[in-house]
Every structure is written in C-alpha cells, then in structure tokens.
Write a structure and sequence with these properties.
The chain contains 15 helices and 2 strands. The chain is mostly helical. The protein has a two-stranded parallel ribbon with strand order 1-2.
Length: about 300
C-alpha cells in the first residue's frame, strides 16, 4: 500500500512518467499544424473542449504531489490518451482531404472478387435484432476498452505495458491515416445509400469544405479499418491480464463481424486493418527488443569499465 507523502516540489509535481510518449504526441501535433495550414484546414476549439484535459491534469498534479505512483500512471495515461485521441481525430480528417481519387470502386470490386456480398449480410442483420444488438455493443466497446486498459494496468503499476500500448495505438493510428490518405474511401454506407452520422463530414472533406469543430469530429477513415486494428491490438495487450484478458478477447472476437456493418467498411478494409495491427505489434516489439539490447550492452560496458578502473 502506498504511503501518503505530500510534496510541493516543482520537480516532483511536473515530472512525467511518459516523457517519450509526450514527445511523440508533440511531434505529430507539429506535423498536423503544418499540414492543416498547407490545406487551409480550420478547426474551431471552444472552452468546453479543455474541461476533460484540465480535470486530468489536476488529477496528475494531485497524484504526483501525493506521491501515489499508480494513481499517477492512471491519471497521466488517461491525459495522454485524451490528447492523442483528439490529435489523431484531426489527422484523420486531414488524411481524407488529400484530394486523391476515391478507392470505393476498387474496394467494392475486391469484396465481390472474394465472394463477400455486403448488402446481403447487412439485410440479414437488420432482420435479426438480437444479433445486431450484441454486435453493436461489442462494436461500441472500443473506447471503454481503452479506458479500462489504462485503469487496470495503471492500478497494477505496469508502466511498461502502458507505454507499449500507447506506441501500438500510435503506430496503428499513423498507418491507418496514411492508408486513408493514399486510398480515401467513403465506405459501404455511401455506396448503398445508408445514412450514417460520419458521412456528411466525409463528403464535406471531399468537396473541399475544411471547417470543423473539435467537439464534433467523428471517425472518417474507411480504409484501413482502425476498429479491426484495435480489436486485435487489445486482444494482444490484455493477454497479460489473466481471465480478464480472455473476456476482453471474447468481446473483440464478437466485435470483428460487427465492423463492416456498424462502421460502413468493406471486408478488405478489415484485412488491411489486420495487417496494420500485425505490423504495429511487430514494429513495437522489435523496437523494444532493440532498446533492451542497447541498454544491456550499455550496462555491461559500464560494469566492465568500473572493473578496469578498480584494477588500476
């Protein structure tokens, strides 16, 4: 149990448990600012948009001052998640404003080539309300899973796992936005004339209307499927949580068949999203292994140097 030790030292209060992650967020923010200026993208930000981050900042300061390390992990990871989510929402909009030709015809043709009839399955789902409700609950659980991951692993004091998850999401977000920039698509809802709350924004981005409000940003990336990538990443991330990990895996397995019909995705979007997840996991694991090897070599070098100095 952590002991309460209040500290008002500035260095203690303003320290960060995720300095490298904040640096990455800042770097992407700088790129987003220059990108937005280049395409004349305008974003309206209101005072209310700062409420949640402000509460999170206050929680971080209190946790640091009280020297509650695990509470500090939870609060700062939550703040990092809130800021990164808002940032990637903006970047996703920028990625859909590249002006490249829409890839819907190619993606739809690819679905049909592998025998996937999106409209047939969608109509079946419409007539099976119970199945649809279960799938929608699983589909909508993505944000809750992210919040729960930060809470669970923060309480367990697993900073390394929190950092790994952040980098997995960041790499997946970058790859997804890059895919959307190269192969923009409006998705199956637009192709089959089905209303969706995010379609107007997608159409406005394609028409050159680049004036949006931060609080009203929605998901606008069709290819690759970010939902698919995150479902697989959360299965991987929660796998170290024992029985909880198995339950989360089940939720995400149920989520997968929901993605085309609640996210307006082609099936090939999911294949691309799966590839994004695998590449993200492989890249982050490789980087972690390389960083660990470098640290071990450095430590061994220091030990040898000390040994040589002691002999002298």
């Amino acid at each position: 149990m952590e002991r309460l030790r209040i500290s008002f030292a500035p260095r203690q209060i303003v320290r960060s448990d995720f300095a490298a992650e904040w640096f990455a967020v800042a770097a992407i923010a700088v790129i987003a600012v220059f990108w937005a200026r280049l395409v004349r993208f305008e974003l309206a930000v209101q005072w209310g948009d700062f409420l949640l981050p402000s509460i999170a900042i206050l929680a971080v300061v209190i946790a640091h001052a009280a020297n509650f390390q695990r509470a500090s992990f939870v609060a700062e990871y939550f703040l990092l998640t809130v800021v990164a989510t808002a940032l990637f929402a903006v970047v996703s909009y920028l990625s859909m404003a590249t002006g490249r030709p829409l890839a819907d015809d190619v993606l739809l043709a690819a679905d049909r080539a592998i025998g996937f009839d999106w409209l047939f399955h969608y109509r079946w789902l419409v007539h099976h309300a119970t199945v649809a409700s279960v799938l929608q609950l699983a589909y909508n659980s993505l944000v809750l899973q992210g919040l729960y991951f930060g809470l669970l692993f923060g309480i367990m004091g697993k900073r390394k796992d929190l950092r790994e998850m952040f980098w997995l999401v960041l790499v997946a977000g970058v790859l997804t936005c890059a895919g959307a920039a190269l192969f923009p698509a409006l998705g199956t809802f637009r192709v089959f004339g089905i209303k969706a709350e995010f379609l107007p924004d997608m159409q406005e981005l394609r028409s050159g209307h680049l004036h949006f409000a931060l609080a009203k940003l929605t998901g606008v990336v069709s290819f690759p499927s970010f939902h698919t990538a995150m479902a697989l990443i959360y299965i991987y991330g929660f796998s170290r949580a024992g029985a909880i990990g198995w339950m989360i895996a089940l939720v995400n397995i149920v989520m997968l068949p929901a993605i085309p019909f609640f996210g307006g995705h082609y099936l090939v979007d999911m294949f691309a999203g799966g590839a994004v997840a695998l590449v993200s996991i492989a890249a982050v694991r490789a980087w972690s292994a390389a960083a660990l090897s470098a640290a071990l070599l450095r430590d061994n070098g220091m030990i040898k140097l000390r040994g040589q100095l002691s002999e002298v």
